[in-house]
Amino acid sequence: MVVLQSVVPGLLFMCILLLDQSIKKSLVEEVRDLNLSSNLYGETKGFIRSSVDPLLTSAYESVANARQQVSVTPITENPNNWTLRDPKLVADIPRYLKTYLMGAEISGEKKKLLLTPWYNKEGVHSLPQSLNLLYESLLQYLLPNEKHTIEIHNHPVASDHTMTAIKMVRITLIVSCLLLVPLTVPLIGASYVLFPIHERVSNSKLLQLMT
Ligand SMILES: *[C@@H]1O[C@H](CO)[C@@H](O)[C@H](O)[C@H]1NC(C)=O
Ligand SMILES: *[C@@H]1O[C@H](CO)[C@@H](O)[C@H](O)[C@H]1NC(C)=O
């Protein structure tokens, strides 16, 4: 009787809890750390258009080269016109997707800089990387003798991972709601049928047994 009333339902409830736990774990594990300060795209090209200080241009070039393997070209004309003048780039789409992912335009005065980061929308992470590059070079320009850095991290969830997680949640809900809960709860109620059976077998009154 004790087995039916407590041990079996207890075991089934433990199964439900374990299923819940495993789902939570898998949801947490699928999020990964993406270091956006590191070189994600391999060797690419970039540009800098600065009318302020040559030191700022060289800071941008050295940070881009050292951290993200971007070879930077200093330009003087409008970046749109400059990139479109490259005939190979216009004709070759894969080349367009892989080169010129990051760039920057710096204008204004020394005390009041106007910063414009440029990025290629085809590279999913090129906007944060371009921002990181710009701020990092500003940091190096302002504090040339100190080794401070700025890092950007993101924790993206790939869409296929989200889909598997959602599928897992659905399957567990179905298993626990349709199978485990209906199996567990009636066991407790049904076990009381053992009292009348015991009464019939032993010829004793149910009331006497219970008082
Ligand atoms: C992120 O990338 C940068 C540049 O490669 C590197 O210096 C830094 O150590 C990395 N950070 C982590 C936490 O891995
Ligand atoms: C960019 O190119 C267009 C068309 O060739 C031209 O009209 C425009 O003046 C150029 N812009 C600059 C800033 O050179």
UniProtKB/TrEMBL annotation:
Keywords for this protein: Membrane, Signal, Transmembrane, Transmembrane helix
Residue spans crossing the bilayer: 171-195
Secretion signal span: 1-28
Superkingdom per UniProt: Eukaryota
Annotated protein name in UniProt: Uncharacterized protein
